[in-house]
Design goal:
Helices cover about 35% and strands about 30% of the residues. It is an alpha+beta fold. It folds into 3 domains: about 5-80 and about 165-190 and about 355-410, ATPase, nucleotide binding domain (Nucleotidyltransferase, domain 5), CATH 3.30.420; about 85-160, Dna Ligase, domain 1, CATH 3.30.1490; about 200-350, ATPase, nucleotide binding domain (Nucleotidyltransferase, domain 5), CATH 3.30.420. Strand 2 and strand 3 form a beta hairpin. Helix 6 (about 235-245) packs antiparallel against helix 8 (about 290-310). The structure holds adenosine-5'-triphosphate (ATP) and magnesium ion. Adenosine-5'-triphosphate binds near residues 235 and 253. It comes from Paenibacillus oryzae. It is found in: Cell membrane. Cell division protein that is involved in the assembly of the Z ring. May serve as a membrane anchor for the Z ring.
Length: about 425
């Protein structure tokens, strides 16, 4: 197996860091390793403590390495957050070949041209997603390779982010001893995995409800049209449970995962559990219905906020349905509750691979699919036999961070 057959994704979330190892086999993807670690140092999706985040990354990566018996050296890193912005841009070039046949190099040049955009100094481009190509004014071309023409144009969506957030994320990954093959907007990756082609074209909202943040991405006409991030998620539900049952957050989280249900009406009165009350050594018994009556209003609020945000983005009436991912969407009863609050069709998307059939893995698995499809797994998350990581000193063997970011963006199509 060559190193290019392996792609490793890293999803650094508020509650968990997840490393997923994908193996390419004649175009098919196998998920061969998964590692996750509790995330320390992230609040509401943003890095607040570099050292803690580095530890969590190392721990998730080592976990995945042990599972597969390889050493991970290169990773694709997911990014999200309220600093992400989208804009559209247009690039034009003259076809260079004498015979006017459009080649790889013309596409590369037109994409470079589409990247020329005035950005405030504190922002930079993360991804460039071509929406359509035009050849001599003829619209709607998805792949102009091999076509004949004089003038090649592209309409592209540019994903930008705050430099500070991007650099901090990259710094953490590098401090964990890993090389970054690319940075990918998690919504793009999740959209790839979770939505059908039809859903991407008709106007669908993908909501990734994590622990500390909820990322909303609107897809229409085949691509990403809007993104937004709200500081809400499963952590709020856990905190409500901790208050409601007067217990510690970690116990509240366990009860939520074991007995949680989004709808009080569907919860059972005969499913009971004992809770150690905070500040005492007394236990009190609660039913699943008690628990659900704490969870339900918070989940309703989360979906009301999602709906409001979709309206604010200007897609209130244009949305045909919602697809949910993220760990918090795994709570039983969520689909029915979301359907009632959003007044639209709702489904939960989860990866269809053994070992990662959980909506919390959608973005990580999506990244592997995205890389294999759109980036040709260039410089894919290579694996190396033990000892190589320490042998190549990150400080001396690599170009500076800024140079690498620039190189990396050049690869992005
Ligand atoms: N089966 C389940 N039932 C209810 N909640 C769940 C379940 N599985 C996971 N969760 C909740 O999902 C949240 C974690 O989701 P996820 O792993 O997608 O978040 P994250 O990526 O770490 O955070 P974020 O994306 O907000 O930065 C936690 O609040 C957890 O309690
Ligand atoms: Mg997440």
């Amino acid at each position: 197996m060559s190193s290019n057959d392996i792609i490793v994704s890293l999803d650094i979330g508020t509650s968990k860091v997840r490393a997923i190892i994908g193996e390419m086999n004649d175009g098919a993807i196998n998920i061969i390793g998964v590692g996750s670690a509790d995330s320390e140092g992230i609040r509401k999706g943003a890095i607040v403590d570099i050292d803690q985040t580095v530890k969590s990354i190392r721990s998730a990566v080592e976990h995945a390495e042990r599972m597969v018996g390889i050493q991970i050296s290169d990773v694709y890193v997911g990014i999200q957050g309220n600093h992400i912005g989208l804009q559209t841009n247009h690039g034009v070039v003259a076809v260079s070949n004498e015979d006017r046949e459009i080649g790889e190099e013309d596409i590369e040049r037109v994409l470079q041209a589409a990247k020329v955009v005035a950005l405030p100094p504190e922002r930079e481009i993360i991804n460039l997603v071509p929406k359509q190509y035009l050849v001599d004014g003829l619209e709607g071309i998805s792949d102009p390779r091999g076509m004949i023409g004089v003038r090649l144009e592209v309409e592209a969506t540019i994903v930008t982010g705050a430099k500070t957030a991007i650099h901090n994320l990259m710094r953490c990954v590098e401090k964990a001893g890993l090389r970054i093959s690319g940075v990918i907007l998690l919504s793009l990756a999740s959209g790839m995995m979770s939505l059908t082609k039809d859903e991407r074209s008709i106007g669908t909202v993908l909501a990734d409800i994590g622990a500390g943040s909820c990322t909303i991405a609107v897809f229409e006409q085949g691509g990403l049209a809007a993104v937004s991030s709200l500081p809400i998620g499963g952590e709020f539900v856990t905190n409500d449970i901790a208050y409601g049952l007067r217990t510690q957050t970690e116990h509240a989280e366990k009860f939520k995962l074991k007995y949680g249900c989004a709808s009080a009406a569907d919860a059972a009165d005969d499913v009971k559990f004992k809770v150690m009350r905070m500040g005492t050594n007394l236990e009190k018994e609660f039913t699943q219905r008690d628990l659900a009556s704490i969870i339900e209003p918070r989940m309703q609020e989360i979906f009301q906020l999602i709906r409001q945000e979709v309206r604010r983005l200007g897609y209130g009436d244009k949305v045909n349905g919602y697809v949910l991912t993220g760990g918090a969407a795994a709570l039983p009863g969520t689909v029915a509750l979301a359907q009632a609050e959003l007044e639209a069709t709702v489904r939960v998307a989860l990866p269809d691979y053994i070992g990662v059939k959980d909506s919390a893995y959608s973005s990580g698995v999506g990244m592997i699919q995205y890389v294999s499809k759109f980036m040709g797994a260039k410089g894919a998350g290579a694996m190396k036999k033990a000892s190589s990581r320490k042998a190549s000193s990150p400080a001396t063997s690599k170009p500076g961070m800024f140079e690498r970011i620039k190189n990396m963006f050049n690869e992005f199509i």
